[in-house]
Amino acid sequence: MRIISLQSEADWPMAVQEAVRTLEYSGTVVYPTDTVYGLGANALNPVAVRKIFRIKERSTEKALPILARNLFWASELAHIEGRNKDIARAVWPGQVTLVLPKKDIVPGDTTGGMHTVALRVCEHPFVNALLDAFGYPLTGASANVSGHEGLRDISAVLQEFEQASYQPDLVIDAGVLPPSGPSTVLDVSNTRPKILRVGATRPEELMKILEL
Questions:
Q1: Rounded-to-integer distance, Cα 73 and Cα 92, Å
Q2: What are the tens digits of pLDDT across the range 136-174?
Q3: How far apart are alpha carbons 203 and 184 in whole angstroms?
Q4: How far is CA 183 from CA 33, 141, 202, in A?
Q5: Cα(77)–Cα(118) distance, rounded to whole angstroms?
Q6: Are the C-beta atoms of residues 114 and 189 closer than 8 Å to each other?
Q7: How far apart are CA 173 and CA 151, in angstroms?
Q8: How far apart are CA 43 and CA 141, in angstroms?
Q9: How far apart (Å, rounded) are the C-alpha atoms in residues 86 and 148?
Q10: What are the helix (H) ranges across 34-103?
Q11: In what order do the strands lie in the sheet with 96-101?
């Protein structure tokens, strides 16, 4: 694992450049988000996606979430129409992941063979800078072994993978992230929205948005 520390915003351009170079070669990157540290690869590259599954020791039948830069990007990856577009505008950018019907551009490797995709638009400046520079959506899985809790402390992330058979190629060290849980996951792929995971955004906040 190569490690780049972000001491200030002056370090961002070099870190983004290294991350993009890694991602372009089907590599994997640990990066800070507005929730917990994420484990990223090109979400449209099956070779890179399979590396994420190996690092996380995750079943390939379980879908990986994807981070998009904005609603336009998300609309290229999933069918977002009518009320779902209004919901997306209300919760993005933010700490809500929406499960939506996927488009063919998203590989089945990423979605565990399912016809839906879990999408989020993050509210973190480094993630946005990375997506802008890379130009492709990233896997937004948490940087931990599957079944373990998401991590905000980079020291814990490094400890999680230091003895692992498969490790991330690059780690962006932003220290300890602000307190937050994982993203809340809201399935809007069917007629009635369903909260699949309660996370950083509380159910009562979503109820107001959904007017349920």
A1: 12
A2: 999 999 999 999 999 999 999 999 999 899 999 999 999
A3: 8
A4: 10, 11, 10
A5: 10
A6: no
A7: 12
A8: 11
A9: 33
A10: 46-56, 71-77, 82-91
A11: 138-139, 66-68, 116-121, 96-101, 184-187, 194-197
pLDDT value of residue 24: 98
Single-letter amino acid, residue 90:
A
Q: C-alpha distances in angstroms, 7 versus 43, 135, 137, 154, 207? A: 28, 25, 26, 13, 39
Number of H helices, E strands in the chain: 8, 11
Copy the structure tokens of residue 147.
């079944």
The residues that bridge with 117 in the sheet, in sequence order, are: 100
pTM above 0.85, yes or no: yes
Residue 61 DSSP one-character state:
T
Q: What is the DSSP letter of 144?
A: S
CA distance 202 to 58: 27
Residue 15 tokens, joined: 């870190």
3-state secondary structure of 98: strand
Phi, psi of 11 (to 5 degrees): -85, -15
Going by C-alpha positions, the residue among 191, 39, 187 that lies closest to residue 117 is 187
| Rounded Cα gap, residues 193 and 90, in angstroms | 14
